[in-house]
Amino acid sequence: QVQLVESGGGLVQPGGSLRLSCAASGFTLEDYTIGWFRQAPGKEREGVSIITSTESTYYTDSVKGRFTISRDSTKSTVYLQMNSLKPEDTAVYYCGRANMPTMREGVYDYWGQGTQVTVSS
Questions:
Q1: Which helix (H) or strand (E) holds 109?
Q2: Quick one: pLDDT at residue 93?
Q3: What are phi and psi of 75, to 5 degrees?
Q4: CA–CA separation, 31 vs 54, rounded Å?
């Protein structure tokens, strides 16, 4: 069955880096868009970055130049490299699957369980 499993979250100081992983199973990764979303306490979930089936990438403005999304089809895994982290990046990060290139949350049909990222000194 379709599964998405996130890992790589943790506690990091401002300015630090983390790499999140989204391991996919039960479907062919290259046929879908994979998106990273995040939800901070008291806020709605927001789109962070997506990588499409053709490996086009998109980022929300607040992370451009700091985050990089990539895909390793041999490992069926999508990564989110996060550099120059800020306290406002603190959130639970989720990956999801969509059959079109979009950051519209409602189009995503499967989600992982999330991984916590905390940026604090």
A1: none
A2: 98
A3: -105, 0
A4: 8
List 112's β-bridge partners, or say none: none
Distance CA(57)–CA(98), nearest Å, equals 14
Cβ atoms of residues 121 and 53 within 8 Å: no
- What would the pLDDT profile of 41-87 be if each residue is shown by its tens digit? 999 999 999 999 999 999 999 999 999 999 999 999 999 999 999 99
| Helix and strand numbers, DSSP H then E, in the chain | 0, 11
Sequence letter at residue 41: P
Residue 33, phi then psi, degrees to nearest 5: -85, 135
Q: Say which DSSP state 21 is in.
A: E
- Which DSSP state fits 74? T
pLDDT at 37: 98
The b/e string for 67-99 (b: 16+ C-beta within 10 A; e otherwise) is bebebeeeebbbbbebeebeeebbbbbbbbbbe
Structure tokens that stand for 35 in this block: 């998106």
